[in-house]
Amino acid sequence: MKNNRMITWLLAVSVFLSLFPTQLSVSHAAEVAPVKEFDLTKLYSDADAISSWAYTAISKSTQNGFIQGSNNKFNPKSTITRAEFTKILVSMLRLNISADKVISFTDVAEKDWYYPYVNVASKEGIMTGFNNKFNPNDKITREQMAVTIIRALGIKSSKQAPVIKDIKSVSAWAKADVELIVSFELMLGDNQLFNPKDMVTREMAAVVATRAYDFKNETKASEENPAKEVNNEVKKYIQATAAFLQKAVTDPVVASVGGEWTVLGLARSDVKIPNEYYAKYYANLEKTLKEKSGKLHNVKYTEYDRVILALTSIGKKIDNVAGYHLAEPLADFDTVIKQGINGPIFALIALDSNQYEIPLVKEVKTQTTRELLIDFILKREINGGGWTLGSNATQSDPDITGMVIQSLTPYYESNANVKAAVDRGIAWLSKAQKADGGYSSMDSMNSESVAQVIVALTSLGIDPHRDPRFIKNGHSAVDALLGFTTPGGGFYHIKQGGADNGGAKPGDVDLMASDQAMYALVAYDRLINGKTRLYDMTDVK
Model-level pTM? Predict the structure, then answer.
């Protein structure tokens, strides 16, 4: 009896779907907040007709009580009317349908089932009519739905303009809102086509309604965590981590741990560091170059990239360090790419840190150019968006995807292929984010992964603490990173009790993790204070 009552209640909660057709990307359509799915065949006799990409959204929408079926059917492929859409919208927004009468549409009477929904939607300024008519039985198009959803959610602007191949087919009055709704991934298209005049189907409506519902809740959660509070917390941890690093690394040398990344993080922060600290590093670098006759490594040219970044961050020249030009090895493209994708990534980051020219070296077989580096990276994109370390891998990785985006940022506005690839990478990072706001690599939740994502997002001007795409269950990427802090300063690689992935042991304070967390927090602090991005060091005097 209890199960029968539950099914009856769910059916009752399921008689009013209606929304918009969205040729939704399957991968994103399945991306909704975690809700335990139930067997829709027990609710709808036509459940088998529901597309796989819409199943989860219909399940969640039904449980949340803002989508219904009719006569034991969901009719997923049917189009919806303005009246049906209004009911879904009002239910999704949890508006009070007992509002005072305000409408005077000649085609909406108080006896009509949709009257209270049209009335409150009109009162809130969400739905409007034309020539004193609401046209409740007209079908709703995708562009109409986009305008209404943007208005209902109060979205005003986006920092990234999406690629919409058929944007010229969108009505002038809907163009801005269509661009907004695509940029926030509330509606997607098929192969970057929005199909603005297509009618909305019920299953498509379910997916978009669920996204809008999640967006509303995640935005509310971020608003309840004021930016000022997190900004102060970030500054506090920058200070604490800077103190930790100076104690842990008293004599910075040429090394991936205890060297350049520590120097970079400290130098790009607002923390006052004694000049003697950087002088020690420079002296150690000169000594190392002399001992190695200028050859930091035969294959790993990221050694030069890392040193270039450290020197640039402290205002030192790179073209004559102990008599060596540190960018000269990067002219050898064939050696740069021997490290796989890491080589081009960090070559670009280093060279663009202060707009350095690539030296011309006659002796090399293939002269490096920025175009060759970019092309190498773009060709390594994983199907579905994102990048990973291996050349034959099929699954993207958050660390490498974040680093790639960091390297391609200077070309985002000027290179259409870069922009499209980066946008796909951002979409993948949003989808890959875990429920606590963090990221997993090699099956382990770790601080370095989320640190690289934060640096990537901030490089594009995306706020990793406020942007709804990077808030899951009220937890942002910044929240996740701060969850790895330790009482005495520094950061864990993996928290106590987490899965060991071969790096520092879970629960151990880790210098590499602390370095990356430091410069990620600095990157965020620079973003919210209107400074140049972490790796744009043209501001260094």
Answer: 0.64
